[in-house]
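User: What would this chain look like folded?
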Amino acid sequence: MTRREQMGRLPLITDAALQIFVVGSGASLGREGAPRQFAAALGDFGTSRWCLTAQDRQILLACAAGAGLGAVYSVPVGGALFAARVLLGTWQPRVLGTALITSALAVAVAAPVTHDATQLVWPDRRLSYLMAASALALSPVALGVGLAFNRLMALAHRAAVTTSWRLIPEIAAAGLVTGMCSLWWPGLPGNGKSILTVILSGEPTLAAAAVILVLKPLLTAVFLRAGAVGGMLTPALATGAAMGSVVTLTINAWTDMTLSVPAVALMGAAGVVAITQRAPLWAAVFVWELARPPWWLFLTFLVVAVVAHRLSILITRRRNQLAADVA
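Assistant: Here's the prediction, encoded as structure tokens.
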């Protein structure tokens, strides 16, 4: 999409359909890639006969992909920022304007189906402004979890099955492992939305949150290793939310403080996604739009995401400097 070359529409649509099937069958993968691919393929079909420059076509296809994400999750600003920042990596006003228009239109068109409802239901709870202080403390933890998540997925991708005859039995074996784990932790199958729903609707136990924090990324890596294809966004969200729950439940159990599990869980989700997607502002906006909690919580999401992302950049620079000194 971003390489300005002809897009294979049929393979893209076929891949998207297979992603929906695999995730719908319980694979621990995200399904957010499918609507983006469908939208990009349809956008390519619609614009292929127009007299557009390569850059204009690239912008429209990225905006179509972002609009697909925005429509499915009812996140118009998140869809626009995904197109501009994650796919195109730019702040150009022309790109931002196009992305906002296409994403807003896509959300409006999908409203009769989605009812413009948030993906996550925010509980009506009293919140303390102590959340703002906890954002800074949570950032290094989010950084560590995000880097570990990226490392694990990279290892799984490199070792992924490529032999066609092995794909079906290995994916089936990964599904069997996930199904067995779901006997004790029912939220593990699927893209991770059920985990987010449980965390926001009712506080999980510390043990359950800790198990989910470990097993969710592991099962996602197992499916990638087996050769399945899917998104990493919602598994990263679920992992970050589990991390936030573990931190909050530990603090509530061992100190006199009482922090909101849903609020800190979403802060953790924003921090981890900021690392995995390398887009802190988009991560904060996307997480806020998913649940639409009180507006000031967006600031805490942004603090966690930005600080974690900046720490990641500093660590990378330090590693590169040490490598250069050794060389």
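Residues 9-114 form one domain. If you want, I can go into more detail on any region.
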